[in-house]
Amino acid sequence: MNGQTHGGRIGTSFGGVARNVADCMTRLSGDASVRLVSAVGWDRHGDALLAHNPAMVRLGLDTGRVSIGP
């Protein structure tokens, strides 16, 4: 290390086992209803996931059981 600072990038993606499985099942299910049941934090990450919610709904994923908790 030469003491210099090197810029980097940080990215956020919405995943995790439950969300990924629900996404895949929605894509594979045809007419069957798939529901994501989960809790998100009462913080900026939870807010970001809920802001991404319309994209999940457009896929046909029922996100009505995603709750917010401290």
From TrEMBL:
Domain of life, per lineage: Eukaryota
UniProt xrefs under Pfam families: PfkB (PF00294)
GO biological process: phosphate-containing compound metabolic process
Gene3D superfamilies linked: 3.40.1190.20
Domain (Carbohydrate kinase PfkB): residue spans on this chain: 6-53
UniProt name for this protein: Carbohydrate kinase PfkB domain-containing protein
Lineage: Eukaryota, Metazoa, Ecdysozoa, Arthropoda, Chelicerata
